[in-house]
Design a protein that fits this description.
The complex is a heterodimer of chains A (157) and B (295).
Chain A (H helix, E strand, L loop, with lengths): L2 E5 L2 E5 L8 H8 L18 E4 L2 E4 L12 E3 L12 H9 L8 H14 L5 H7 L10 H18 L1
Parallel strand pairs in A: 1-5
Antiparallel strand pairs in A: 1-2, 3-4, 3-5
Helix pairs in contact in A: 2-5
Chain B lengths: L1 E3 L4 H10 L3 E4 L5 H7 L6 E4 L9 E3 L4 E5 L4 H7 L5 H8 L4 H6 L2 H7 L7 H6 L3 E6 L3 E6 H4 E3 L2 E2 L6 E8 L5 E6 L10 E8 L4 E7 L9 H13 L2 H4 L5 H14 L10 H30 L1
Parallel strand pairs in B: 1-3, 2-3
Antiparallel strand pairs in B: 4-5, 5-10, 6-7, 6-10, 8-9, 11-12, 12-13
Classes of the chains: A alpha+beta (157), B alpha+beta (295).
Chain lengths: 157, 295
């Protein structure tokens, strides 16, 4: 089937997409956007988190055909060219990146959190990130990165 | 595999009539897992995410909420926590934010898993499931008759779930679930309780402890009779400990659990009695305290 959608602000069109494949597969294997990671393929790990029409979703659970005509934003759309997004910068500074596999999904989910809740409590951060697993278990640094980024985004808002 | 994308409800029903083997697809949080991880391939997928009428809810003339099958858990939490507190509590325990953004109550009913989180609160309030077909129109299935077996429901092959019709809360409601952590867990067992202060009737729902979600009939009858008999609704006094204990026993006895990877039957039965005791204590305390502050 043919899929037409907007990805990180760019109109994309793809032919011969298999009906049963996931948006994650489309992004990684057909569009050359490997930032969203493929791990569990059952919505358990959050490493494939992207925005679909402004809401964060596990892209492994979105059928390709469901993304037709929709607007998608991936981790590749976070930075401003070479300039890192404040959340990305905070991850670098706090050592929140270990193996890095969970990082893209976390970045997208944290951006969504901070847009809705600019000054989240630790409990709110934990709730928002409950579906993003870090198997290096670097959660303390990830929480620190969220607090640092939140402060910087608030001070520049 | 075909991918069918109806843009309206009538078109969806026509497609389902033509292709009864098409698998309805909403938020994908069940269906896509199966497509990703198993070799099972349905003949066709029927995508229901483009049908606007499924995504909305409304209040009916008799104070029920008609919840479109495509309303997400996120919407239930954000928009219906006052009217449907039990369902909203259950919705908060579903998966993660990403899953709640996509997963729908209609999809939960379609999958009809014994562990579905929305089922116990729907049982506890006596919801009805509105299903439709192209040729026979709509019918309402009482939730007690909806679940017919493990992952089976009362839908005919040409029918689709249109909505859940749910009485608005008229008293405290509770939901509680056992799992290895707070997020991303399939219930080991779960329990929902609804107290109706107007009719003075008690409703229950048990999840993950029988081939289908079930009500604890005996427990409901016992507590309803005791609360009325002792005039406890009027007196707004604490519940006698013996009543709480007996209710919990009857809830545990209603279950028909099995041993599986998530827990043993013995554990499930015990856990259910604990959930029943806790939820009843919380709900009755809320009822009692509300009455005190209002007086």
């Amino acid at each position: 089937m043919r899929i037409t959608c907007t990805v990180n602000g760019q109109a994309r069109e793809l032919d011969d997409v298999w009906e049963g494949e996931s948006l994650l597969y489309v992004l990684r294997e057909r569009m050359g956007l490997p930032g969203s990671k493929n791990a569990c393929e059952q919505g358990e790990c959050g490493s494939c988190t992207v925005y679909l029409d402004g809401e964060t979703v596990c892209s492994c659970l979105v059928a390709a055909g469901q993304a037709d005509g929709r607007e998608i934003r991936t981790v590749e759309g976070l930075s401003d060219g070479e300039r890192l997004h404040p959340i990305q910068q905070a991850f670098v500074e706090t050592g929140a990146v270990q193996c890095g596999f969970c990082t893209p999904g976390l970045l997208v989910q944290i951006e969504d959190l901070l847009r809705r809740t600019p000054d989240p409590t630790d409990l709110e951060i934990r709730e928002a990130l409950a579906g993003n697993l870090c198997r290096c278990t670097g959660y303390e640094q990830i929480l620190e990165a969220v607090r640092l980024a939140a402060g910087r985004i608030r001070s520049t808002a | 595999m075909e991918f069918l994308t109806p843009m309206g409800w009538d078109e969806a029903l026509a497609m389902k009539a033509d292709r009864p083997d098409a698998l309805p697809l909403a938020g994908g949080t069940d269906v896509m897992v199966e497509l990703n991880l198993t070799a099972h391939r349905p003949a066709a997928l029927l995508d229901l995410t483009r049908i606007p009428e499924l995504r909305t809810w409304s209040t009916t003339a008799n104070e029920h909420i008609r919840l479109g099958a495509g309303v997400t858990y996120r919407q239930v939490i954000d928009e219906l926590a006052d009217q449907l507190p039990g369902l909203a509590m259950a919705a908060r325990t579903v998966g993660s934010p990403q899953i709640r953004n996509r997963g729908t109550v209609g999809g939960n009913l379609g999958a009809a898993s014994p562990a579905g989180d929305s089922h116990p609160p729907l049982l506890a309030v006596g919801a009805q499931i509105e299903v439709s077909s192209k040729t026979r129109g709509s019918r309402l299935i009482p939730i007690d008759e909806f679940f017919t077996g493990v992952k089976r429901n009362a839908l005919a092959p040409d029918e689709l779930i249109a909505a859940a019709v749910i009485p608005t809360a008229r008293g405290p409601q509770q939901f509680s679930k056992i799992g290895t952590r707070n997020a991303m867990v399939i219930a080991v067992c779960s329990f929902a309780l609804a107290l109706d202060a107007h009719t003075e009737v008690v409703g229950t729902g048990i999840g993950s402890a029988a081939p289908t979600p079930i009500r604890a009939d005996e427990a409901e009858r016992y507590l309803t009779e005791v609360l009325q008999g002792l005039r406890l609704w009027r007196r707004r006094s604490p519940l006698p400990e013996s009543v709480v204990r007996r209710f919990a026993e009857l809830v545990a006895e209603a279950a028909a659990p099995i041993d599986d990877v998530r827990g043993t039957a013995v554990y499930r039965r015990h856990a259910l009695s604990v959930l029943a005791r806790r939820t009843l204590t919380w709900a009755w305390d809320e009822y009692w305290a509300t009455g005190q502050s209002a007086a």
